[in-house]
Design goal:
- By secondary structure, the chain is an all-alpha fold.
- It is built from 15 helices and three strands.
């Protein structure tokens, strides 16, 4: 039975629907406390330092990449997927429980404590002698924390509450990607899976062509959207009300404070971690909509965004660490749904594994195309005319 997961909410009670047997059982949120693992991610910086101290091995400065691209994918393969559908009152209970909002908020204190700690280490603190490769390893670990912070900001930025939207800008400040606050909500969600969306990867496009196009296109789009919003309100684009400028100001101030505090020696690592975080986010953008295209309807407009326009994965551990980002189809079909209520989908195209493994695959274009191109074509029944073909 193929249907949008939203239709399953007609079943009442605290239940989950088993996708294999199509039967329901009494529900309890087995993942409730697992969501706190997301807030543990910034602890990778402290863990790196501790492991180096305990073992004397400098390889552990690279603990961030090791966890993200080796350990978590292996754990996901061992644990498997979470394919259960929530139904009825279970969804309402999850949506109103403040625990899940606080689980998201907790990422930010750890994020900035880890950044300060890293700056101290780069500046020569921590009772260790760091070589250039050590500092680069720490930079990559901090960059992964910053990249996942963009995802935390993504969740906060979709909420209507003023506090959460401000927290979103704070989370984005580490990577200097404040324009994402504007472009993602008002640009990407409107134009996703169309030629007008810079964050939707085209069929056959490599990650190395996509990232510059997405970064520059997203920046241009965000500025145009914010300029238009302010003009409609009778304000200058240089107004303090400009959501891009005030977000960038947070980055400038935070970086200036850190450089004054720890010295100019941290500058290249501070900038480097931001670039790594941005590239991580844009690689996620790449795999989320690769080759998918909304079709034009009779009026010439594009069809409504649906669950067939995003790639999904139900890999359990990666979803916990990424606040259900991998259930991307339901997110685009229902952008205001909080992360804990996002559902699997019967009709969304499925990635072969979780984001950790898929990110690595994306960085190897021949392997990526061998794995993903047949899946794109299969999703459209072999009709190459329906895919998002790269323009000449």
């Amino acid at each position: 039975m193929v249907q949008e997961t939203r239709s399953l909410s007609s079943l009442q009670g605290y239940e989950v629907l088993d996708p294999q047997t199509r039967t329901t059982r009494r529900w309890r949120d087995a993942k409730r406390y697992l969501w706190l693992l997301g807030a543990v991610v910034p602890g990778l910086v402290g863990l790196a330092w501790l492991l180096v101290q305990l073992t004397g091995s400098s390889i552990f400065w690279w603990v961030g990449p090791m966890m993200a691209f080796i350990v978590i994918p292996i754990v996901d393969q061992l644990i498997g997927t979470d394919d259960g559908y929530l139904t009825g009152n279970a969804l309402a209970h999850l949506e109103t429980d403040p625990f899940y909002r606080w689980a998201n908020y907790l990422y930010l204190p750890g994020q900035y404590l880890s950044l300060i700690f890293a700056c101290w280490l780069w500046a020569g603190g921590g009772w260790v002698t760091m070589t250039l490769p050590d500092k680069l390893g720490l930079m990559f670990t901090v960059g992964i924390v910053g990249g996942i912070a963009i995802n935390a900001a993504h969740e906060l930025g979709h909420r209507r509450d003023t506090l959460e939207r401000r927290l979103s800008k704070i989370a984005l400040a580490q990577t200097g990607y404040g324009h994402f606050f504007v472009e993602h909500n008002r640009g990407h969600h409107v134009r996703v899976a169309t030629p007008d969306d810079p964050a939707s990867a085209r069929f056959g496009e490599s990650i190395y062509r996509f990232i510059p196009r997405s970064v520059l296109g997203g920046l241009r789009s965000a500025w145009q959207l914010e300029t238009a919003r302010l003009a409609k309100a009778g304000k200058s684009k240089w107004s303090p009300a400009n959501d891009i400028l005030n977000a960038w100001l947070l980055t400038a101030v935070s970086f200036a404070v850190l450089i004054v505090w720890f010295g100019a020696v941290i500058t290249p690592y501070l900038l480097g971690q931001a670039v790594i975080g941005i590239c991580l986010l844009e690689t996620v953008n790449y795999l989320e909509h690769y080759g998918l295209r909304r079709q034009r309807v009779g009026s010439g407009r594009y069809e409504r965004v649906g669950q067939r326009h995003s790639w999904n994965s139900n890999a359990l551990m990666a979803n916990v660490f990424l606040y259900h980002l991998q259930r991307h189809s339901d997110h685009h079909a229902n952008p205001q749904k909080p992360y804990q209520t996002l559902q699997p989908s019967d009709i969304a195209p499925q990635l072969p594994t979780g984001y950790g493994s898929m990110l690595v695959l994306a960085w190897c274009p021949p392997l990526w195309r061998r794995v993903m191109d047949p899946r794109v074509l299969a999703h459209y029944g072999g009709d190459a005319g329906l895919v998002a073909v790269r323009p000449d």
